[in-house]
Design a protein that fits this description.
By secondary structure, this protein is α+β, with helices and mostly antiparallel strands. Helix content is 21%, strand content 29%. Bound molecules: zinc ion.
Length: 342
């Protein structure tokens, strides 16, 4: 039988159940091959319905580690409602240590609303947006910068949904205990998980918790605390499952990422030397770095300047760059009223 995606999840079953989504993808070595994506359902009666996912991009590890640990530790008797955990959403990408799937070059976070008859990444996106997200009140999608990008650890949301959904997303995002959080505007039709969550009627919360295809004690601590704080805020659990955690020492500083004008893009081959680290507070016109041309070593390097005031939120890690690569991004300081405004 050929359908978009198979599963045997019983959404009404209490207890903890680990199973797989199966995405048919007939290949030379295995005509009836299915991409198997692990999914864990933990349910204890009715209550908050939360979907936790990581591995939307395969090389982003904080969420993948924290969610597999959470899956093992969560005792159904110690929670209420429903928690669905998808720790490696784009599993082929995770197994290849890549951002995108090697099977179809699919970037899951650019694949929504998906296609039930398409390549595996697009079938998965279709299932998530049309079948799984609508069964949940909140979707928490955990990212990081991945192999080529350093990222300021920060929560993230998109301006999506009704004003009430927007306010609730902001409240939940600020409750994660992250030092920074940015609000992106990608539009209602965006191909991202956050736009898909809104289209499915769920509150979307996300974040960039590290970068460079690695994890650190600091990035893991922030991620674990954010997951526990979200589950406690929603009433899924009463005590931290991944804790104990350090206390939150400052309110979350909101940042806006609304325009490509807040970034410096390469427009030719070059070698990027940054002047500051993510987290630096900068002003428009200050030196962001230098762009070298190793094919013309006699030519002076080009000075790159920040295009806006704010906080450096991401930076390219790989020195060797090409036309089109985003070298550095600046988040503009944002007030709560601005975040909620139209
Ligand atoms: Zn990502």
């Amino acid at each position: 039988m050929h359908t978009g995606l198979f599963h045997q999840i019983d959404f009404s079953a209490d207890g903890k159940h680990l199973s797989h989504l199966g995405i048919p993808f007939s290949i030379d070595r295995s005509p009836y091959y299915q991409v198997k994506v692990p999914v864990c359902r933990i349910r204890n009666g009715t209550g908050p319905r939360v979907l936790l996912m990581a591995g939307n991009h395969g090389d982003e590890y904080e969420g993948e580690i924290c969610l597999t640990r959470l899956m093992r530790r969560l005792d159904p008797a110690a929670m209420r409602g429903e928690i669905t955990i998808v720790p490696f959403a784009n599993r082929p990408a995770m197994m290849a240590a890549r951002r995108r799937s090697p099977l179809d070059e699919g970037n899951l976070n650019r694949a929504f609303p998906g296609d039930p008859a398409g390549a595996p990444t697009f079938r998965l996106a279709h299932f998530l947006e049309h079948e799984l997200f609508p069964r949940h009140d909140v979707v928490f999608d955990i990212h990081s910068g991945g192999t080529t990008m350093a990222h300021l650890p920060c929560a993230l949301m998109e301006k999506q949904g009704t004003p009430a959904m927007l306010a609730r997303a902001l409240e939940l995002m600020e409750g994660l205990g992250m030092p920074f959080a940015f609000v992106a505007e990608n539009g209602a039709t965006a191909p991202t998980s956050m736009a898909a969550a809104a289209r499915a009627g769920a509150i979307g919360v996300s974040g960039e918790f590290g970068g460079g295809a690695t994890v650190t004690p600091a990035s893991m601590a922030l991620t674990a605390r954010a997951i526990d704080r979200l589950l406690i805020a929603l009433g899924s659990v009463e005590a931290p499952v991944l804790g104990p955690h350090a206390a939150v020492d400052a309110p979350t500083q909101l940042l806006a990422l609304q325009s490509h004008d807040q970034a410096v893009f390469a427009t030719r081959r070059g070698w990027f030397e940054p002047a500051v680290l993510p987290g630096a507070r900068v002003k428009a016109g200050e030196v962001a770095g230098w762009y070298h041309d190793f094919e013309r070593p006699d030519q002076a390097e080009e000075t790159l300047r920040f295009p806006a005031d704010g906080i450096v939120i991401s930076q390219r890690l790989h020195t060797d760059s090409e036309s089109g690569d985003c070298l550095v991004q600046v988040g503009r300081l944002l007030t709560r009223a601005e975040a909620l405004g139209g």
